[in-house]
From TrEMBL:
The chain crosses the membrane at residues 9-26. Residues 36-254 form the Regulatory protein YycH-like domain. This is Two-component system regulatory protein YycI. The gene is yycI. It holds the Pfam family YycI. Keywords: Membrane, Transmembrane, Transmembrane helix.
Length: 282
């Protein structure tokens, strides 16, 4: 047997095989690029046809993952530092506060200004971010933040402030989460553009509308126990319609599901439980 000849044949065969495999890789890579380009072009064309305006910078999230947290249990002793208010603790998890003297939350220009009130009168108040001002009902809704990002519509991570006709706070309700832990980190998360594209192709963004902002946050995924909850990374897309009204859309950044929040406000009065609750007066 001519070993040199056999070796040469093996070299030629393996060379041909490598060339074949490389050409196959190039073909598949090119097809993938074409599909992505076609998809992007289709979305851009669809937005153009529907007259949807979207030209926002990308919000890059490298550490977006599931998080878990425990419900904060309040004690009478730790709330004694909150001055100028009477506090009732409901089920150990909710603060119901009535201000001894109403506190103004309007500045000299007539704009609402909540920072001072949150800092002086609310337990860890700076952890909350303003979400919505309801002028008709004279109230404001705040969401607790984790790493600077809001937890959307979780009644266990919410603050609601109420004021009178003179724009002075008279009372508030508060719930809070603690002991945040990240887990099950994923690399392939829905990007901001993919979230917007998904909403557009599924018809959630109406014709002649403008996408005002896209921000990352979290939404309730599952409640493991009565004390512990899991939250999923979530994109919030705020859209202005042709008539000037605003719509808020939410989409799970891992599963791609559109979230429809069924929000029940914290009850303002619960007289049946007051006899068993701790009360703090300052």
């Amino acid at each position: 047997m001519d070993w040199n000849k056999t070796k040469t044949i093996f070299i030629v065969v393996f060379s041909i095989l490598n060339i074949f495999l490389y050409s196959l890789y190039l073909k598949q890579h090119t097809e993938t690029q074409n599909v992505q380009t076609i998809g992007k072009t289709s979305i851009e064309e669809l937005m153009k046809q529907e007259n949807i305006t979207y030209n926002l910078p990308q919000a890059v999230k490298n550490d977006f993952s599931y998080i878990s947290a425990n419900i904060k249990m309040f004690s009478k002793e730790e709330l004694e530092s909150l001055v100028s208010q009477s506090i009732i603790i409901v089920d150990n998890t909710q603060i119901e506060s009535t201000m001894n003297k109403p506190i103004s939350i309007q500045n000299s220009k007539g704009d609402y200004h909540f920072i001072d009130f949150l800092t002086k009168y609310v337990w860890n108040g700076t952890e909350y971010e303003l979400w919505e001002v309801d002028k008709k009902n004279q109230s404001a809704m705040f969401f607790q933040q984790v790493d600077g990002e809001p937890i959307f519509y979780s009644t266990n991570a919410m603050l609601i402030i109420h004021w009178n006709e003179e724009h002075e706070v008279t009372k508030y309700e508060q719930r809070m989460l603690k002991d945040f832990t990240s887990f099950n980190k994923k690399k392939d998360l829905m990007t901001q553009d993919e979230a917007v594209s998904s909403l557009v192709t599924r018809g959630y963004v109406k014709q002649d509308s403008k996408i005002l902002r896209v921000i990352p946050g979290y939404s309730t995924r599952v409640q493991l126990t009565t004390e512990t909850q899991v939250f999923a990374p979530t994109w919030n897309i705020r859209v202005e319609l042709k008539d000037g009204s605003i719509e808020e859309h939410f989409i799970n950044a891992i599963e791609g599901k559109v979230i429809d929040f069924q929000f029940e406000k914290m009850e303002e009065d619960n007289p049946d439980e007051e006899l068993d609750d701790d009360e703090v007066d300052e």
